Automatic annotation (TrEMBL):
Transmembrane segments: none
Domain General stress protein FMN-binding split barrel residues, every copy: 7-147
SUPFAM superfamilies (UniProt xref): FMN-binding split barrel
One Pfam family this sequence matches: Pyrid_ox_like
Protein name as annotated: Putative stress protein (General stress protein 26)
Domain of life (superkingdom): Bacteria
Coiled coil: none
Length: 156
């Protein structure tokens, strides 16, 4: 089940645009990710001089929280941040959303690429809103608890 859940985790990340990233020195903040399973990484674009960039320079531990009903995934992910100097990877993940944050776009001197390598995660997979509503209604009419999907712990 863990391999299936891990596959589902990576697949569903593509349908989620952002989560909350934090480090021991950076409080939780909304960050857009690009998930690349082939890299076993989540990628973030931030600006030089931010506390996320500074934490990544030191290889800090990070925590990324995802809560998405439309993506049918809730997760608390732990991992290691790193500052990555890879222009090809930056080109690969660059987007109009990232460009909106930088005056000179992709070639702005402040652009900074951060990798987040997950080490473990607690994950809840749901079956969608319709199934959730059905299960909640069923639970209220019976003495059963709702079956809202799968829950598990992943190690990467």
């Amino acid at each position: 089940m863990t391999d299936t859940m891990k596959d589902t985790f990576w697949d569903r990340l593509d349908d989620i645009t952002a989560g909350m990233l934090s480090t021991p020195t950076a409080p939780p903040r909304p960050m857009a990710h690009v998930a690349k399973r082939k890299d076993d990484m989540l990628w973030f674009i931030t600006a030089k001089g931010t506390d996320i960039e500074e934490a990544a320079q030191g290889g800090a531990q990070g925590h990324y929280t995802l809560a998405s009903s439309h993506g049918q995934l809730y997760a608390a992910v732990e991992g290691t941040l790193s500052l990555v100097n890879d222009p090809d990877k930056l080109d690969e993940i660059w987007s109009p959303m990232a460009a909106a944050w930088f005056e000179d776009g992709r070639h702005d001197d402040k652009v900074c690429l951060v990798g987040f390598k997950p080490t473990k995660a607690e994950v809840w997979e749901t079956d969608g809103t319709a199934k959730t509503l059905f299960e909640m209604a069923r639970a209220n009419m019976t003495e059963d608890t709702p079956d809202l999907g799968k829950h598990g712990h992943l190690t990467f």
